[in-house]
Design brief:
150 residues, four-stranded parallel β-sheet, alpha/beta, 39% helix, Rossmann fold, binds 4-nitrophenyl phosphate
Length: 150
């Protein structure tokens, strides 16, 4: 059985599409399925933010084909692990859980690494620089997750 991992942020156009693309690139797709979603529905059906597409491309990853979707309660039964980017995502997702088993699937992405910060900052309103540091944080965490899953 494949392990199914869901990456979640607010808009599903900046951080979680990067997390989806990065983790999928580090694992065998025969064993691990990775998807992403947003807690808000502002951008449903849209491709990732062009700044996320650009930083992913810089590191050889194509995330252009991803399309934004909203997190739904059904994702708790569909996915084994749900990684959120910040505490606000954590409470939004955890508030939809119906039992402890569902709540226990929700984890802060940066708890996987020792970076001195626990939240991936929302880069949406910043400049391009934010996307580079966000990429690096997500990459470190995904490296640690991939080691556990591979
Ligand atoms: P994300 O960034 O949660 O990393 O996808 C955001 C994208 C869009 C908005 C907020 C955050 N927005 O308010 O539209």
């Amino acid at each position: 059985m494949k392990t199914k991992v869901l990456m979640v942020c607010l808009g599903n156009i900046c951080r979680s599409p990067l997390a989806e693309g990065i983790l999928q690139s580090k694992v065998d797709s025969k064993d691990v399925f990775v998807d992403s979603a947003g807690t808000a529905g502002y951008h449903i059906g849209n491709p990732p933010d062009e700044r996320s597409i650009a930083v992913a491309r810089k590191y050889g990853l194509s995330i252009d084909n991803q399309r934004c979707r909203k997190f739904s309660k059904q994702d708790f039964s569909e996915f084994d692990l749900i990684y959120v980017m910040d505490r606000s995502n954590f409470s939004d997702v955890a508030s939809l859980a119906e039992n402890k088993a569902e709540t226990s699937k929700v984890k802060l992405l940066l708890n996987e690494v020792e970076l001195g910060i626990k939240e991936v900052p929302d880069p949406y309103h910043g400049g391009d620089d934010g996307f580079e540091s966000v990429y690096q944080m997500i990459d470190s965490a995904c490296e640690a997750i991939a080691k556990k899953l591979n």
